[in-house]
Automatic annotation (TrEMBL):
This is Beta-xylanase. Pfam families: Glyco_hydro_10, Ricin_B_lectin. It comes from the Bacteria. It comes from Actinophytocola oryzae. It catalyses: Endohydrolysis of (1->4)-beta-D-xylosidic linkages in xylans. Signal peptide: none annotated. It is an enzyme of class 3 (hydrolase). SMART domains: Glyco_10, RICIN. The lineage of its organism: Bacteria, Bacillati, Actinomycetota, Actinomycetes, Pseudonocardiales. The keyword Zinc-finger does not apply.
C-alpha cells in the first residue's frame, strides 16, 4: 500500500471523481460509520475476519455459544478436524464432530478455517506405525478424503502444520511425515488443491512471529513453491505469545505477503501483565498489512485455553470482556475505512457498494476485452471464484474502490456481459450489465436477488427465482 498521496486527499479526490462519474446515483459514501461493537463486525469493516478456535463439546454451553455467535465471524475447529479425529481407522472416516463445527459456522454465517490436514501430532495410532511409501499414500489419501468431504465449506485449510524445526537451522522438523521424503509438503498441497480448488491453502506454524531462522526457512519454502507453481495461498502465524510481540512482527507478515500469499494470525493467545497492549499491537500489525486477512484467537474464555492458568484470551472464565478485548476492538475500529483506490484494499462494506468480504479481495477482470457486449469472467484479484459480498445502500457493483463495473477502465464497459460466481461455487452465473444501469442474469434475464436489504448486511448474490428481484444501479458513464 505505497501511495504518494495522503489518504485524506486521496479520499477527497475519489469522492470528487465519483461525484462527477456517477451523476444521478445515490451518494456513494454514507459518511463515517459508527464504531462496531463486536470483534467480527469491527474486523469486517476492513474486509477481515475475527475468529476463534472452537470445541464441539462446548457448543452446548450457553455462555460459550452466546459469545461465539455474537463476536466471531470465523471458526477453527480446535481438534475436530485433525487426523486422529477424522480417520481413527485407516480409510474409515468420522466427521461427526467436524461436521458439528462446520454446521455452527454455517449457521452463524462465519467462515470455516480447516485445521489441520497433516501434522506430526494427533495422528491416529495406525498412521504412527506406518512409514515410507505406505505412509505417504495414506497421508495423501487422508488429505484428499477430508478436503473433499469439506469441499465448498472451508475458507482456508491448514494443509500442513508445524513442519519446521525450532532452533537455528531453519530446516524441516524430523517426523514420520518428513521421512517419507522432502516433497511431502508440496504433495499435500497439490492433493488439497485437487480436492477443494476453492479453499485457500495455508502452511501454519509457531515461533515464526518474527524474522528468525525458522520463519526464514518457511519463507524460502513459500518462495520456492510460488516459483515452481506449487499451490499455496496463505501462511498462518500461530502467535502463541508471552507478554510481548517481536518488534519485527509486522515486517515479518509483510515479507510473506510480498511473496504473493495471504497471511493470517491463526492461534493467537497472549499471557502476561502486558496482555492488553500486546493484543492491540498484534491487531494493528495485521491491519497494517493489506494481505493479513484475519485473526483467530485460540479459544474464547480463559478457561477454554490450552494454556491452563495463563489466562491468555479475551474473555474471563465467566465470559466477561477483558481489557484485552477492548484493546482489540478499539484497534479494529481505529483502522477506519480502507483506501478506496487501492486494489489490494478490500473496502469497508459500508459505503454504498457491493464488495467482497474477504480481505484483499477486489473484483478484477484480467485480460478482458473491452468491447461492448463481450462476455467476461469476474474473479477476485487473486483469481478465486466464490466470494461473499456485502450489500449496502446504494446498490452498486464495484470493481474496486469506486470504480463501478463499466466505468473502471478495466474492461467492463456498460453493456458488457460478466460472470459473477455464486458463493457456493455450484454454478457460474452470467450477469449482464445493462446500459440502463441494471445487472441481469444473462441466461434467464432475471436480476440479482438481495434477500437482506439493510445497509451493510452481508449477503450472497444469486439469481432471482421469485418476486424478490432486486435491481442494481449501474454506472452512468
Ligand atoms: O488446543 C489444542 C489442544 O486442545 C490439544 O490437546 C492439542 C494437542 O496437541 O492441540 C492444541 O492445539 C494446537 C494446534 O492444533 C496447533 N498449534 C498448537 C496448538 C496448541 O497446542
Amino acid at each position: 500500500m505505497v501511495h504518494a498521496i495522503p489518504r485524506a486527499r486521496r479520499a477527497a479526490t475519489v469522492l470528487l471523481t465519483v461525484g462527477l462519474m456517477a451523476v444521478g446515483l445515490v451518494s456513494v459514501f454514507a459518511g463515517t460509520a459508527a464504531a462496531a461493537t463486536t470483534l467480527g463486525a469491527a474486523a469486517a469493516q476492513s474486509g477481515r475476519y475475527f475468529g476463534a478456535a472452537v470445541a464441539a463439546g462446548k457448543l452446548g454451553d450457553s455462555t460459550y455459544s452466546t459469545i461465539l455467535r455474537r463476536e466471531f465471524n470465523s471458526i477453527t475447529p480446535e481438534n475436530e478436524m485433525k487426523w486422529d479425529a477424522t480417520e481413527p481407522n485407516r480409510n474409515s472416516f468420522n466427521y461427526t464432530n467436524g461436521d458439528r463445527i462446520a454446521g455452527q459456522a454455517s449457521s452463524q454465517g462465519a467462515r470455516l478455517r480447516g485445521h489441520a490436514l497433516l501434522w506430526h501430532q494427533q495422528q491416529p495410532g495406525w498412521a504412527q506405525s506406518l512409514s515410507g511409501s505406505t505412509l505417504r499414500s495414506a497421508m495423501i489419501n487422508h488429505v484428499t478424503q477430508v478436503a473433499t468431504h469439506y469441499r465448498g465449506q472451508v475458507y482456508a485449510w491448514d494443509v500442513v502444520n508445524e513442519a519446521f524445526a525450532d532452533g537455528s537451522g531453519g530446516g524441516r522438523r524430523d517426523s514420520n511425515l518428513q521421512r517419507t521424503g522432502n516433497d511431502w509438503i508440496e504433495a499435500a498441497f497439490r492433493a488439497a488443491r485437487s480436492a477443494d480448488p476453492n479453499a485457500k491453502l495455508c502452511y501454519n506454524d509457531y515461533n515464526t512471529d518474527g524474522v528468525n531462522a525458522k520463519s526464514t526457512g518457511i519463507y524460502n519454502m513459500v518462495a520456492d513453491f510460488k516459483n515452481r507453481g506449487v499451490p499455496i495461498d496463505c501462511v498462518g502465524f500461530q502467535s502463541h505469545l508471552s507478554n510481548s510481540v517481536p518488534g519485527d512482527y509486522q515486517a515479518n507478515l509483510a515479507r510473506f505477503a510480498n511473496l504473493g500469499v495471504d497471511v493470517q494470525i491463526t492461534e493467537l493467545d497472549i499471557s502476561g501483565s502486558n496482555q492488553a497492549a500486546v493484543y492491540g499491537n498484534v491487531t494493528r500489525a495485521c491491519l497494517a498489512v493489506s494481505r493479513c486477512t484475519g485473526i483467530t484467537v485460540w479459544g474464547i474464555r480463559d478457561s477454554d485455553s490450552w494454556r491452563t492458568g495463563e489466562n491468555p484470551l479475551l474473555f474471563d472464565n465467566s465470559g466477561n470482556k477483558k481489557a484485552a478485548y477492548t484493546a482489540v476492538l478499539d484497534a479494529l475500529n481505529s483502522a477506519g475505512p480502507e483506501d478506496p483506490e487501492d486494489p489490494e484494499d478490500p473496502g469497508t462494506g459500508g459505503s454504498g457498494n457491493v464488495r467482497s468480504t474477504g480481505a484483499g479481495r477486489c473484483l478484477d477482470v484480467p485480460n478482458a476485452s473491452t468491447s461492448n457486449g463481450t462476455q467476461l469472467q469476474v474473479y477476485d484479484c487473486h483469481t478465486n471464484a466464490n466470494q461473499l459480498w456485502t450489500y449496502t445502500s446504494s446498490k452498486q457493483l464495484t470493481v474496486y474502490g469506486n470504480k463501478c463495473l463499466g466505468a473502471s477502465g478495466r474492461g467492463t464497459t456498460n453493456g458488457t456481459a460478466v460472470v459473477i460466481w455464486d458463493c457456493d461455487g455450484d454454478s457460474n452465473q452470467q450477469w449482464n450489465l445493462n446500459s440502463n444501469g441494471t445487472v441481469t442474469n444473462v441466461q434467464s434475464g432475471l436480476c440479482l436477488d438481495i434477500p437482506a436489504t439493510a445497509n451493510a448486511t452481508r449477503v450472497r448474490l444469486w439469481a432471482c427465482s421469485g418476486s424478490a428481484n432486486q435491481q442494481w444501479s449501474g454506472p452512468t458513464g
